[in-house]
Design brief:
Layout: H1 4-12, E1 30-38, E2 48-57, E3 60-72, H2 80-86, H3 90-93, E4 97-98, H4 99-110, E5 115-117, H5 120-135, E6 143-145, H6 146-154, H7 168-175, H8 185-205
Parallel strand pairs: 1-5, 3-4, 5-6
Antiparallel strand pairs: 1-2, 2-3
Length: 224
């Protein structure tokens, strides 16, 4: 979790003060659901090939208020394994803008709003290496991890030996959310947004998700 002292440090040492707006809270009833498609799973070595963000205001996902872009990777190119996931080949992103040009527009769209997502910490770490180059700071936005909200509604206080299933498809199925075409940045952002709204509503009502009684070694929630 990105704490207050950490944010104060980066705000004080910001390399480009034009991005001070990121450190100012956004509207109280707004968050942004974010997803990145990448060339791999190593933020140090891999690059972003697509990014999408959609605004959530109150209980509505405003698909008309969205940001989406293909991105030409700086160094790492889509390989066979990543292409199987997002189906974006090198030629598909060859004419796209590099992230350093995409990033300012994305940041203006996000502002100081909290960021929602599934494995949102990975997406933010992918963006951080570009923000460090742009203004010498990491993204200060609060992160809301969908799998952690789901874990709390389904597995909190689960007995020892319970099996935890935190796969995105399982979360959507439990919440009755339709599965859009997966590993499309905009679709993934929309589905994460729908899961967030459903889980937030359950949390406000104190509702829980019924769990089955299986045995196994439980992994921790991804957003813990």
């Amino acid at each position: 979790m990105r704490g207050a002292l950490w944010r104060l440090f980066y705000r004080a040492s910001l390399g480009d003060h034009a991005y001070q707006f990121l450190f100012r809270p956004g509207p109280a009833d707004e968050v942004v659901s974010l997803d990145c498609e990448t060339t791999g799973l190593d933020p140090k070595r891999d690059d972003i090939v697509a990014v999408a963000a959609v605004l959530i205001r109150g209980n509505r996902i405003l698909t008309s208020s969205r940001f989406e872009a293909l991105v030409r990777p700086d160094e790492a190119q889509p390989g066979a394994e990543s292409i199987k996931v997002h189906r974006l080949r090198q030629r598909d992103v060859a004419d796209a803008q590099p992230m350093r040009r995409v990033l300012p527009g994305l940041l203006r769209f996000i502002g100081g709003r909290p960021l929602v997502g599934y494995y949102i910490d990975f997406d933010v770490r992918m963006l951080d290496k570009y923000t460090m180059d742009l203004f010498e700071a990491k993204l200060p936005n609060r992160q809301i991890e969908v799998s952690a909200l789901y874990y709390d509604r389904k597995y909190r206080d689960a007995p020892p030996g319970s099996t935890f299933d935190l796969r995105f498809a399982s979360i959507l199925a439990d919440l009755g959310i339709p599965m859009l075409e997966a590993h499309d940045a905009l679709n993934d952002a929309i589905m994460a947004g729908m899961a967030y709204l459903a889980l937030r509503d359950m949390t406000s009502r104190g509702a829980r998700i019924q769990r089955e009684r299986f045995r196994g070694a439980p992994p921790p929630p991804t957003g813990a």
